[in-house]
Structure formats: structure tokens, C-alpha cells
Amino acid sequence: MICKQGETRRGATSVSLQRGGAILVVRNVPAEICENSGEVYLDEQVAQDLPSQAELCLAAGVLVSLKDFGMAA
After folding, report:
1. Pairing relation of β-strands 22-34 and 64-68?
2. Are 27 and 67 in contact, with CB atoms under 8 Å apart?
3. N-term to C-term CA, the chain
4. Residue that wins the pLDDT comparison between 20 and 33
């Protein structure tokens, strides 16, 4: 945590991941969001799931993808 000035609240955010020429934007990612600074904090399981979802897209040859968190690639 960097802000330390506000409380966090459960919410959702979007995360963009890039590697090589591929881009994956994942919407509705569950997160704790600081009400003061807007900083986003992901729990450990969510942070581990995002790269796995990106790997599935890369393996399928996807170059650009927009998806909701938790849905199949």
C-alpha cells in the first residue's frame, strides 16, 4: 500500500496485460480500491489467475482480446 490515507472498498477494475505484440484487457477484475487515491489491490488468487488467462489467449494465437475476469479465453 502506498496511499495509507483512505479506506479500501470492494469493487472491480480493468487490467491490461501486454507481451510481445499481444494485448489482453480483462474487465470486472475483483479488487480492493482505495477511496482516496484510487489505488487498486488484487488478492493473491486473482493476481495468479490473470497471467494464466493471458497464457490461454497467447496459446490460442490471440493478438488482442477484451474479456471479463473468470470467463474462458
Report:
1. parallel
2. yes
3. 31
4. 33
